[in-house]
Specification:
Number of helices: 11
CATH architecture of the largest domain: 2-Layer Sandwich
Strand order of the largest sheet: 3-2-1-4-5
Number of domains: 4
Distance between the termini: 13 Å
Largest sheet: 5 strands, mixed
CATH class of the largest domain: Alpha Beta
Length: about 375
């Protein structure tokens, strides 16, 4: 169970008092203080309250003093082509001793250097515990590619195995679904997928952002997550792969020769030949295995838990809860959704995916795709 799902399921069970609290904490692998903390935060702020909080300390007793930091800034302005080590030597001559790493952080904090990629230290890095728990999917940008849209990449979160690499030439939903169907038929289906706020899996005009592609994936029993807007590190693994792919294209000078045949060969090389540091220098192919979940072109009607409270979305994409009509999405027209009442809050599920949180006390609706973004 991933971090998001664990906290939501715990809160639901705790509020409903399904089991003694101590037994519930033991089942979810958390301490009683942590359990009470999650419950208190949810009752106060809903899903936003149980989102992952930053680990940055409120007080940093060892933080560099403002005077010393200003000294570093002035030296950098005087010698803009000097790096942290050279500046450190000059500072030491003036009687101030600082590690090069500290100087570099000061320069970066003041935007005086620019790393190619520097993930925020507030973000925790997560990795799924087994293959096919989560697939990350995204289109590569056009840079270094001979089409307006780069290839579609599908990457397994646990093994970094490159499941798909296809030059579709566009982001239209039809070709993307065909590619996904072909992939599912060959290697099985994931438990969940992570995508960004882009076409064709996000609709900016829809209150829920749902599209035909995302509804189809939900009906297959795949839980869906969306990355944070403006936070590519949420999809860090597939973004990292795109950087690796671009460097390969540039270093091998194959800009004009890139084709699907070249991508197929590169995918084989990436999976079977290229060792990966995050895997202890193993290749992704030695860690990954096909999913036992088989693709069903015509899946049976989704079975919600026995006794679940259900509502049917009307033709306009609306449902009525607590005497008020809530606009969801026309993509869910005439579909059944599950209603999970938790006091003055209501969680809405479509198939296995949590898609909405309602706060009846203030008549507020929360799109849940952005909460706990650093669970990935």
């Amino acid at each position: 169970m991933d971090v998001r799902q664990q906290r939501v399921e715990f809160v639901i069970a705790a509020i409903r008092e399904e089991k003694p609290f101590g037994e519930l904490c033991k089942e979810f692998g958390v301490s009683r203080p942590t359990g009470y903390l999650w419950l208190r935060r949810y009752r106060t702020s809903g899903l936003e309250g149980i989102a992952e909080k930053t680990r940055r300390p409120h007080v940093s007793p060892k933080k560099t003093s403002p005077d010393v930091e200003q000294q570093v800034i002035e030296l950098r302005q005087q010698y803009p082509d000097w790096g942290a080590r050279k500046l450190g030597a000059l500072l030491e001559q003036a009687g101030t001793r600082l590690p090069a790493s500290t100087i570099h952080r000061i320069l970066r904090r003041n935007r005086m250097v620019q790393d190619r990629y520097q993930a925020s230290r507030e973000w925790r890095r997560f990795e799924r515990s087994r293959p096919n728990e989560l697939w990350q999917m995204d289109f590569k940008g056009p840079r270094g590619w001979n089409q307006d849209v780069g290839p579609l990449s599908i990457l397994d979160d646990h093994s970094r195995y490159l499941i798909g690499l296809k030059a579709l030439g566009s982001t239209e939903g039809g070709p993307v679904r065909e590619q996904l169907e072909d992939t599912f038929q060959k290697v099985g289906m994931p438990e969940a997928m992570l995508m960004d706020h882009g076409i064709p899996w996000w609709n900016s005009r829809s209150p829920l952002g749902l599209t035909k592609i995302t509804v189809w994936l939900m009906e297959q029993g795949v839980r869906l997550y969306w990355s944070g807007i403006g936070h590519p590190q949420t999809q860090g693994k597939v973004e990292r792969f795109h950087g690796t792919l671009l460097r390969s294209i540039e270093k091998r000078r194959v800009w004009k020769q890139t084709s699907q045949a070249w991508l197929d060969h590169y995918r084989w090389e990436y999976n079977h030949l290229r060792p990966h540091e995050a895997l202890g220098m193993k290749t992704p192919a030695t860690v990954w295995e096909p999913s036992p979940r088989k693709y069903q072109p015509h899946p049976p009607k989704w079975e919600y838990p026995e006794g679940a409270v259900l509502r049917k979305v009307d033709a306009d994409g609306k449902i009525q809860i607590a005497g008020k009509q809530w606009h969801f999405s026309r993509a869910l027209s005439r579909q059944w959704v599950q209603i999970v009442p938790l006091g003055q809050r209501v969680l809405i599920y479509y198939c296995a995916t949590l898609i909405r949180e309602l706060d009846l006390s203030i008549q507020r609706s929360t799109i849940v795709d952005r909460w706990m973004q650093d669970s990935f």
